[in-house]
Amino acid sequence: MAADHDQVAEDFLNQIRVGHLPFGITTKEVAVFFERYGKIEKLFIKRRISRDSSVFLTHPYVFIVFEKSDSVDQVMTARPFFIDDCELFVRRCLPRTKKYPYEAFITVEKILLHTVSERDDEILPDEKSIFDYLSLTGGKIKYSERLDNKTVLVQFDDYDPVDICCLSRPHFINNQLVEIEKCSDEDQVRLQIEFQKKSQSISTAELSSTQITPEMDCQATYTVSPVPTLSIDDQITQIRLTHSDITNNLERQHEQLVASLSSEWEQTAKERIRLQRLTLDYKQEQERLAKENRKWQKLFSDSLLEKPQVQNEGETKLQEACRTTTIATEKYNELIKNTR
């Protein structure tokens, strides 16, 4: 993605990503499988871990661009798909933006709805309005919770409604602009909201305890900063919570990445061993066939050399047989004459 602009959601409405494909599948086979849902304009299959890598993916994936976005809706409705005992993982393609750079790479069933404005008097619409609006995605809501007046957590029964929300920005509920984003770490969101509530309560307590002493000059003007001021202990607590959240999140992501790469590498190693054995078997079979071919070529050449000699021997034997027959006939005739 270029650093100076965001990808446009409208360019991705007719695109899907299909993962967990069989190892040896071809582009034509994928096209034949999905063209029943609409005309395919482009299809790109990725078989290697990276462009310059020599390691093949055990389960390649493919990007499909349909002529119409309705084809994507039909594909997502027709899930699940199976090819050669492999259950395909199909999802919509999402744009990469500066605000949500990693949204296109994560798949979740939860979303966060929150107000765009930071004004204290602005709150989210009621649950019924939110549910009515989210029902347009076609998904079923399993769980919802209002974390505070500005944040609502919603969990669907599938990941596709979440991707539909991401592709349908901006969102207006009861004429109010509402931001919707994927929720990949619910615990971290809850910690942040709890800390914000604690900060607000501390700020309120400090403001209520502020008094003007009678010794102060009545003409002097005192103002209270609108920005909440935290004590050193609270600031340290905030830094520790933030650091702990970031560390835990990175550790979880690292563990997931290591586990995923280890599993992928193990499958790749097994597949490589299998291919090496097949290659060795094919090489031995090729050598055997080449040896047998040379044997038959030699027999054929020898038969061509022996053919004139065999023909001459046959003609000689035939002439001798004719002479023997002639002599026997003459003797037979003489015997007949002598008998008379």
Automatic annotation (TrEMBL):
UniProt keyword tRNA processing, yes or no: no
Keyword RNA-binding included in the entry's annotation: yes
GO molecular function, one term: RNA binding
Record's protein name: RRM domain-containing protein
UniProt KW keywords: RNA-binding
Superkingdom as given in the UniProt entry: Eukaryota
Stored InterPro entries: Nucleotide-bd_a/b_plait_sf, RBD_domain_sf, RRM_dom
Domain RRM: residue ranges: 14-95
Pfam family, one: RRM_1
